[in-house]
Amino acid sequence: MTTTVGDLAALVSARLCHDLISPIGAIGNGLELLELEAPARSPELTLMSDSLSAALAKLRFFRIAFGPAEPGAVTPRDEAAQICAAMFSGRFAVAWDAAGDLPRPAARLACLAILCIEKSLPMGGTLELTTPEPGAISLRALGRRTAPPGDLWAHVRDRIPLAQVRPDAVQFALLARGLAETGGTLTARFDATTAEVRIAVPPPVLTPPLAEALP
Hints:
Elements: H1 5-37, H2 43-66, E1 74-75, H3 77-87, E2 92-97, E3 102-103, H4 104-120, E4 125-130, E5 136-143, H5 150-158, H6 170-182, E6 185-190, E7 194-200, H7 208-213
Parallel strand pairs: 2-4
Antiparallel strand pairs: 1-3, 4-5, 5-7, 6-7
């Protein structure tokens, strides 16, 4: 088995998220003890608690979006909905309304697409994710104004190379790579206030050992 640079990057992302969750969780335990001893919840404790929750939500979301996507792994619907609700609780809100659990590769594409759409709504908005049929993921967002970066979306949809990948746009490059690896396709449509993105993912291909084990 050959490990690519992209595979290593995903593994590094997963390792960082995994190793950071434990100490951040320990901070949360400390905050709970402070709250028990305090006669009333102070603004300082509230700020620290809210920041801690935001940090944990980001780590859990980034682990799906930037971590490895094993073909046999599954992302439960309720878990994804909870993560998205916690991750996007400010001016950009996400409702994960998938009909059921998603294979991890499909969930990874969906999370990357959410980040791409967020960047295309500079003034925020609301996004709803649904799965209208097997293998299809629909993302519809409404905001005050859309500003989709044309070169980045062209890279995702049409595989047009980027001259440079900026850190704040790495989700577009990873989404394009993920679609190529899974054989998926993406369509995107924007008008003044709405964004509609649809991802079609073919059924996962059985690995040779599993295929041989089936009757």
